[in-house]
Structure formats: structure tokens, C-alpha cells
Amino acid sequence: MQQTLKRILVVDDEENIRHLLTTVLKREGLEARAVASAQEALEAIDAEPFDVLLSDVRMPQVSGLELLEQVQARQPSLVVIMMSAYGTIDAALEAIKKGAYDYINKPFKPAEVVLLLRKVEERERLRRENASLRQRIEEIGDGALDAMVARSEAMKAVFKTVRKIATYKTTVLIQGESGTGKELIARALHRESPRAERPFVAVNCGAIPDTLLESELFGHVRGAFTDATSDKKGLFAEADGGTLFLDEVGELPLPLQVKLLRVLQEEEVRPVGASRGFPVDVRVIAATVRDLYEEVEAQRFREDLFYRLNVLLLALPPLRQRRDDIPLLVEHFIDAVNQRLGTTIRTLSAEALKRLVAYDWPGNVRELENTIERAAVLAESDAIELDALPTTVADPQRRSLPLEGLGGGLSIKQATRVIEEQLIRRALEQTNGNRTAAAKLLEISHRALLYKIKAYGLISN
Q1: Which of 298, 317, 336 is at the close of a domain?
Q2: Which of 80, 111, 336, 368 is the most exposed place for a label (fewest CB within 10 A)?
Q3: Is the pTM value of this prediction over 0.90?
Q4: DSSP letters for 321-353
Q5: Domain residues for 50?
Q6: Distances 123 to 24, 51, 96, 128, 448 between C-alpha atoms, Å
Q7: What angle do CA 172, 175, 181 make, to 5 degrees?
Q8: Does 254 reside within a domain?
Q9: What are the E-state strand segments in 222-329?
Q10: What is the pLDDT of residues 26-78, one digit of tens each?
Q11: Peptide bond into 107 cis (omega under 30)
Q12: Number of domain units in the chain
């Protein structure tokens, strides 16, 4: 027998049963201890760890079924096997219903006990493997470091810093261009921290109207405003004990910046319309594509809030500064799109990979991912060729933005409009009309993009 379940506790008021079982178990190389009552068993369990409990059903004072219930309350992971000389189907079902692993009738042969313990061993092995697999899947799904694809020295340095600072509650500011993976890093910080079992709550501060953002963050009480028909729990309260990720924190309006600063300093949230606040235990991770130093200089961002957020700074390098990661990312995205869409891409041509590595990727990893998905869908075979790539990537001569529509004029105002319109068209094309993703590529808020789409008369599919 494998020796993962080593320590066995035998509980029986008959001395000969205790002697028989401890002898058999020790012969199998197990550590066996025997006690004569349920009370002694509980004292033993409280004093030292056991892997399996073998208990008689009928015992004086406290029965085996009563012992089972108390063990389930104290140590639910302990495997319990019940024994009885008065075995009936009803008794066996009752024991299993209360949480016993199995039921064995007396008199039994020593080989029966050994076989049953082997079954327990196998079940526990599978349970541990499944738990490990579930944890691995959760880590990948939540963006843990092991799920992030990178081998460049720049990203290795970021990962090293994440592991170093993850255990502390200190506020972290993540800066980087759109598409560099700021939320993935935030999730990795959470998963590597002692708060991993608590909530990770993410909010894009630029995607929620200013009039609703305060209520979204801090909650409100019934009657606080016209549509407040009931109390609402804010995101700070939802993240209590865990992590709150404030994406695009540079988009916060100034009045709300004041209230956020107060929450960070006092660790107390007051819902809109409430007369008093309540304490919260939240680690805040903020992210922005903006240069907050410049925003502070321009008086669009409060200096005191900036320094409160910028305790630990993580600067994520753009993809053009870590081209070594591109082949690895391409392979990863091909596998992902094959699984998600059912495509059968095996590889891509050398020329296509060369162009991918040479391109500057203004939309960074997100743009690369979208490009690979598009190419996988358009590919004529199981290999991505150059003609499946967007023109901006495949044809370096057309990489610069043409200023069509200027008519030879030199108006900066007109040129700005033309450039904006073409960039928006390109972003919408690359994101298949996804306005939220396009706004991230353009490094503007979702509201600003919607305004410009309307102003320029653009239609996204």
C-alpha cells in the first residue's frame, strides 16, 4: 500500500478488536493508535493529526454515529470508516449520509480492512490531483504569473517584482500602454497574495458615466437619489478582504478623486446618501495608460492621490520593446484560437512571423491577439501566410498613416481630424467593431470614442 495515508485511529470498546486492527495495520507499515471511547477519540484528534478513523457504531455513552457528526464538524477532511456487528442496510446508509466514507461489517477478515484502505488511498490520491488541477485552472483563468507568456528579460523583471511585492497590502500603480497586460498583472498580484481566496473586483473607471461612478464604487442607500429604490453594495464592499483593481484610474473626475483619497487614507467607505461609513479591508491596485506626472502638472489629477496610489510602481514595457516574446505569444494565441473557434492552424510561414516580429504593435499584446485570431479565420490552409495578415502588418510600405483628404492644405485642425478619423477606423477594423477594445487601442475613454464616432459619422460593425 502507498504510504500517503499513514496515521490510523481505531475506536472500539472491545479490546480484542482494537488489538486485531492495530496488529494488522502495523503489519502493513501504518501508524495505528487505538482508543476505547468516542471521548478518547476526540481528544486524540484534537491532539494530533490522523488520516483515517475506524470507528465502531455501538459504543457506550457516545455512539459511533454521534462521533462521526462531531468529527465532521471538527475535521471534515478526516476519512471515517464505520464498523458494526449489527450491520443493516439502514445503518450503513445512515453512516454514509452523515459523511462516512464506507461501512464494514463485523466479523471481518484482515484482508477486507486492508483492501478498503487501499480504496481510500486511491480516492485521496485522485482528490488531491483534482484539487491541484482545479487550482491550476483557476490560476490560469485569473491571470496568475504561470499563465502569462513571456521570456524576455524585461518581463522576467516584472514577474520578479510582482512576486516580491504581492504579499504586502501596499497600493500598487501599474503604468503601461493599452494592451500591455495591466489587468493580468493585477490579477497575478492578487493570486500571489494572502488575499487569493478573497474577491478580486475589477472596474474600468473610464467606462462608467461620472454620475454613476460614485455609487458604483461606494454604493448608495435607498432614497439617495431618484432611482435609488433600494440599498446598493459598492465595489469596495464587494472586494472587502480582497483586491480592488481600478483600471484607467486617470479617467476619474476630480470630485471623485477626493472621495477615493479619503477611502484610501481612512479605510472607510460611506455610501452615497448614508450618514456614516463602515470600515473596509481592501488592497487597491490602480492602472493607467496616462502619464500621471503630466496629469498632475496639468491639474487634471490630484497630486495627493497620485502619491497615495504611487507607493509601488510597476511599469510594463510595450511589446515593441520585448520582441523576443512575440514568437512565443503567437504560438500561444494560435493554440487558444484553435480551442475557442475550432480552427486547425498548425504554424505560420517564416515571412509572416518575420513581419509580426518587425511590426511595432501600437496596440501591444491585445492587438497581436486580435491579429492572430483574424489570420486564423482567414487562413486558406493549416498555416498562416502573409496574405492572412492585416495590410498594416504585412506591407511595411503602408505602415505610415496616409493623410488622405487634406487636399494639400496645411491646416493642423483639419489634419488632426483626418488622423483621428483614420485611426478610429483602423482601431474598429482591428477589433472587429468592438468599441471597448478600440478605445483601449486608441488610449481614449469609451465615452470619448462614442462621441467621436458620432461626430465623424462612423459606423462600426
Answers
A1: 317
A2: 111
A3: no
A4: G-GGGHHHHHHHHHHHHHHHH-----EE-HHHH
A5: 7-134
A6: 21, 13, 15, 9, 57
A7: 95
A8: yes
A9: 243-247, 268-269, 278-279, 283-288, 312-315
A10: 988 888 999 999 999 999 998 888 889 999 888 888 888 899 988 888 888 88
A11: yes
A12: 4
